[in-house]
Write a structure and sequence with these properties.
GO terms for molecular function: hydrolase activity; nucleic acid binding. Pfam families: DHH, DHHA1. Residues 19-170 form the DDH domain. Residues 233-332 form the DHHA1 domain. The protein is of the alpha/beta class. The protein folds into two domains: 4-208, inorganic pyrophosphatase (n-terminal core) (Alpha-Beta Complex); 213-331, Roll (Diaminopimelate Epimerase, Chain A, domain 1). It is built from 13 helices and twelve strands. The protein has helices spanning 4-13, 30-45, 78-87, 103-112, 141-151, 160-173, 184-195, 200-208, 213-224, 241-246, 257-262, 294-301, 319-331; strands at residues 20-23, 50-54, 72-73, 90-94, 116-121, 131-134, 227-229, 234-239, 269-275, 282-288, 305-306, 310-315. The protein has a six-stranded parallel β-sheet with strand order 3-2-1-4-5-6, sandwiched between helices. Strands 7-8-9-10-12-11 form a six-stranded mixed β-sheet, with helices on both faces. It is globular and about 60 Å long.
Length: 335
């Protein structure tokens, strides 16, 4: 949490005369978008305006959220995004721990910005910012935004729009409240959000009941060739670029695929490898159970990181070479 003196300083920054920007990470997910929009709506309740900027586009199944269409996508509106960051007095950095995580376009703008920078994030090893609220034990940045609202003593301002956005972020980043980091506090906050107007059935339907034919074709393909190694402890899933193109891949279509590997009885780690649609690198998603630390594994071998039980990576070899290397590395791990 922020200290009481930091909260006092932040409160002084949150005035109508200051231009406020909210930035999240490259390839925004449910928690990134939910926390950003939740904060935007909260600031609006305080009588403040804020621009939400994302480095690149986000999945369609998140665009139902209140004012999602007003989010500035830097890839599409470069001039508007750049000017907003340059002219900002206050920048909230949400759901990522280092400037470069916001991509090659937004990252340098963020580093050069003259604004006071306020980090709220739950990933390990955060960079230095003017104000830092970092807690790896909290399952979602959206939950941290709720804690931030509590620190400001402004829970009474939480309305339906804020509740829907924060509920979505918490729900998606906890895997539907299944992950180990989901706590009693998380459930109490979710209960409060429901009382404030969040509709769990509607949010779940809008966010997760959104299969397309292309997604189901890709899922059928990936499940048909799933591989289990290391005495049944590790599941491997993968997709090639031509397969994505063949089935009309859209952003967000492979969301959650890695979890199918982890659902196999006896597995402790699941790894999903996918060729980038345009560039020559492999995007990697890792998931694990219990105390198996895929964050450190990804940092050590695959240029990535994240959380103990959920991490990502990037590899500059072919998908075949990447999987071979992964199999070699996983055999060196003791779990």
């Amino acid at each position: 949490m922020f200290t009481s003196s930091e909260i006092s300083e932040i409160q002084k920054l949150l005035t109508p005369r200051h231009k406020i920007v909210i930035i999240t990470h490259y390839n925004p997910d449910g928690d990134a978008v939910g926390s950003s929009l939740g904060l935007k709506h909260f600031l609006k309740q305080m009588g403040l305006e804020a621009d939400v900027i994302v480095p690149n586009d986000f999945p369609k199944f998140l665009k139902w959220m209140p004012e999602a269409k007003q989010i500035i996508i830097a890839d599409y509106k470069r001039k508007q995004a750049g000017e907003a960051i340059y002219n900002a007095d206050v920048i909230f950095v949400l759901d990522f721990n280092a400037s470069h995580r916001s991509g090659n376009l937004v990252g340098p703008w963020l580093e050069k910005a003259r604004a006071k920078k306020i980090l709220i994030d739950h990933h390990q090893q955060p960079d230095a910012f003017d104000y830092v609220y970092s807690d790896v034990t909290v399952p979602a940045t959206s939950q941290m935004i709720y804690h931030f609202i509590q620190e400001l003593n402004e829970e009474n301002l939480v309305n339906k729009d804020i509740a829907e956005c924060l509920y979505t972020g918490i729900m998606t980043d906890t895997g539907g409240f299944r992950f180990r980091s989901t706590s009693a506090t998380t459930h109490r906050i979710v209960a409060n959000l429901i009382e404030k107007g969040a509709d769990p059935a509607m949010i779940t339907s809008n966010t997760w009941d959104t299969n397309t034919v292309s997604r189901l074709h890709l899922l059928a393909l990936i499940l048909s060739r799933i591989e289990v190694v290391k005495d049944g402890k590790v599941a491997i899933l993968w997709l090639k670029r031509e397969e994505l193109k063949e089935f009309g891949f859209q952003k967000g279509d492979t969301e959650g695929f890695v979890n199918y590997g982890l659902s196999i009885m006896g597995t402790q780690v699941a790894a999903f490898f996918m060729e980038d649609l345009y560039d020559d690198f492999i995007k990697i998603s890792f998931r694990s159970k219990e105390d198996v630390d895929v964050n450190q594994f990804s940092r050590k071998y695959f240029n990535g990181g994240g959380h103990i039980n959920a991490a990502g990576g990037k590899y500059m070899k072919t998908i075949e070479e990447t999987i071979v290397d992964f199999k070699e590395k996983i055999e060196q791990e003791d779990f």
